[in-house]
Design goal:
The chain is an alpha/beta fold. It has two domains: about 120 residues, Glutaredoxin, CATH 3.40.30; about 100 residues, Endoplasmic reticulum protein erp29 (Up-down Bundle). It is about 55% helix and about 10% strand. One of its GO terms (cellular component) is endoplasmic reticulum lumen.
């Protein structure tokens, strides 16, 4: 049995190693930049849209993994910058002034704020969804910024047609569907043709059954994906869910 002296030393060493590992983990976020009080305004003011995550000094775990996925996705969108502000509640309390400026407490970490059009004084929107879900954060960005973030299986030109389709009357929807079918004829890659076919079939079903089809279809596909299916089939179903998410986002805009 370990003596109290060595037991204490062990736990101190363990804590130091854990902190070191967490620091390394926090440093590797592809597609994200770190902001502090000295550069916050300068950076925000130079970008069309900036998603800022206020968090503890060395964030880790599933919520940080979700943030990493969002940051990685943002690389392909030149008008979006993803950033972190690490707020310390010890020592010199780095960036605590920024957290207080936007009314953020450590209990709310990770707290997301979206800044647009170079306005660093006031955030356009605050994220209130599930920080464990990268897709929820992405949908928040798309809805509040109007920028396109390419989810796997989605096509930009069709994602831009979906909100128009959702808002339109039945006659107008038929016209948008026809536009989508014409656009699909210009595609050359098999994966793009497959994705376009999913958009078109979904539009046809909505025309036939109404907006309720989208929710029912999400439930059906999620059930299939959670069952015993091959990795390839699971990916196909995941891509379909991403496309359906574009329709869901359009419906939320209508509420």
């Amino acid at each position: 049995m370990m003596s109290p002296k060595y037991s204490k030393m062990f736990f101190v060493c363990f804590a130091l190693v854990a902190t070191f590992c967490r620091q390394i983990h926090a440093d590797v976020v592809q597609g994200s930049v770190s902001l502090n009080s000295g550069v916050f305004d300068k950076v925000i003011e130079k970008h069309k849209a900036v998603l800022v995550k206020f968090d503890e000094t060395y964030p880790y775990g599933e919520k940080q993994d979700a943030f990493k996925e969002v940051a990685k996705t943002s690389v392909s969108q030149p008008d979006l910058l993803v950033a972190e502000v690490h707020v310390a509640d010890y020592g010199e309390k780095d960036n605590q002034d920024l957290a207080e400026r936007f009314g953020i407490t450590k209990e709310a970490f990770p707290a997301y704020r979206l800044f647009t059009d170079g306005n660093s004084e006031k955030a356009k929107a605050s994220f209130s969804g599930d920080a464990l879900q990268a897709d929820s954060i992405k949908n928040f960005i798309v809805k509040e910024s109007g920028l396109w973030l390419g989810r796997p299986g989605c096509l930009e030109m069709f994602d831009k047609l979906v909100p128009e389709f959702i808002k339109a009357s039945d006659d107008e929807r038929a016209s948008i569907l026809s536009e989508a079918e014409k656009s699909a004829q210009d595609l050359t890659k098999d994966e793009e043709k497959l994705a376009a076919d999913t958009y078109i079939k979904t539009m046809k079903k909505v025309l036939d059954k109404g907006n309720s089809f989208i929710k029912d279809e999400v439930t059906r596909v999620e059930k299939l994906r959670s069952g015993k299916v091959s990795d390839n089939k699971k990916k196909q179903l995941g891509d379909r869910l991403n496309i359906l998410a574009s329709f869901q986002l359009g419906l939320k805009d209508e509420l």
